[in-house]
Structures are given as structure tokens and as C-alpha cells.
Specification:
0% of the residues lie in helices and 66% in strands. The protein is mainly beta and 82 residues long.
Length: 82
């Protein structure tokens, strides 16, 4: 899957990932390969990105929106702290 994390100021992350866990407004959820299309609002919290089985990166966001479609994930965040 391809992931992009964007803020109004810049592109924070772009790359291939195997799993993304996001802080949804009604609870956190994970996005895996071939996930059904979805658009969801995000709350303040951690976005956990697994690039490989052993490599993980965490971004703290202040809220935003996630869109998943055709194995592409776009996170539009208000702000991000790596």
C-alpha cells in the first residue's frame, strides 16, 4: 500500500507500508492491504505506520481526515509531530 501524510504546510511522509493504525473519531482502527474504501475523521492521537514487519514509525497528529481507496491511503492532518 502507498501512504501519504500531508499537513497544510508540507508532505510529512510518503512511502510503501504494510499497516497503518489511525485514531478515528469513534475509535482507532487499522488499515491493511486491500482495505475497503473509506473516509473517516481523525482525532488527536498517534498514527502508527508499519513499513515492514520490524520497522515502525509513529506520528502524533492533532486531528484530520483519512481516505483509503485502491490501496492508497491519504491522511490530511491539521498538524504532525514525528
Amino acid at each position: 500500500m502507498n501512504l501519504e501524510i500531508l499537513t497544510p504546510e508540507k508532505k510529512v511522509f510518503e512511502g510503501t507500508v504494510v499497516l497503518v493504525k489511525v485514531p478515528g473519531t469513534k475509535g482507532s482502527f487499522a488499515i491493511l492491504n486491500m482495505h475497503a474504501p473509506i473516509i473517516s475523521t481523525l482525532e488527536k492521537g498517534e498514527v502508527k505506520v508499519k513499513k515492514t514487519k520490524n520497522q515502525e514509525q509513529i506520528f502524533t497528529i492533532s486531528g484530520g481526515v483519512v481516505e483509503v481507496r485502491d490501496n492508497k491511503i491519504i491522511i490530511l492532518a491539521e498538524s504532525v509531530i514525528e
